[in-house]
Amino acid sequence: MSRSSEFIPLNICVLTVSDTRTEANDTSGQALVDQLREAGHQLFARDLVPDDIYQIRARLSNWIAAPEPQVVLITGGTGFAGRDSTVEAVTPLFDKTVVGFGELFRQISFAEIGSSTIQSRATAGLANRTLIFCLPGSTGACKTAWGIIRDQLDARHQPCNFVGQLR
Questions:
Q1: Where in the numbering of this chain does the MoaB/Mog domain appear (predicted)?
Q2: Percent of the chain at pLDDT above 90?
């Protein structure tokens, strides 16, 4: 368990996976940036890559290997459409999977979108002591996910949080 009486700002990267979005219209990525900054964390890097397994994996691998990033938030590419490949790109890199994240996300999401939540492949895991969250591409889904993630990135949150597991 990791508990602290002080808030510890984390270095967080945001990656948008999309074949159609640009920095100008990436509302989901921007929502994540806004929320992490509001919580007191630092945006370490932000990028946008096409929905391609190898481009996703290359960008993510560089962040995982670097000493500074502690958390990566990925939005997009988690559905069932033909090009949705974030989950396939990311999960082989996990040292451990945070199974409860996807379960809780779908439970909360059910109240918002009903049974369509079964098509969400939101997932999370730890790779080289970097916490990675794969979120749907919709802005609303990113806000829902942040409601779960926020407390787990706060060293003061009890009874446990992920801060002590990060480098």
A1: 13-156
A2: 91
Q: Write the CA distances from 46 to 54, 59, 65, 67, 160, integer angstroms.
A: 18, 10, 16, 16, 28
For residue 72, the number of C-alpha atoms closer than 13 Å in the C-beta half-sphere is: 33
- Is residue 11 in a domain? no
Q: Decide: helix, strand or coil at residue 49.
A: strand
DSSP H or E segment with residue 58: helix 53-65
- Per the CB < 8 A criterion, the answer to whether 48 and 23 are in contact is yes
Tokens read off for 101: 């994240």
CA proximity to 161, closest of 98, 77, 90: 98
CATH no. for residue 91?
3.40.980.10
What is d(CA 144, CA 121) in angstroms, rounded to the nearest whole number?
A: 14
| Residue 73 within any structural domain of the chain | no
- Domain range for 98: 26-43+52-67+86-160
Confidence (pLDDT) at 3 = 57
The tally of domains found in the chain comes to 1
Question: Residues 64-102: pLDDT tens digits?
Answer: 999 999 999 999 989 888 889 999 999 999 999 999 999
Residue 33 structure tokens: 């940036």
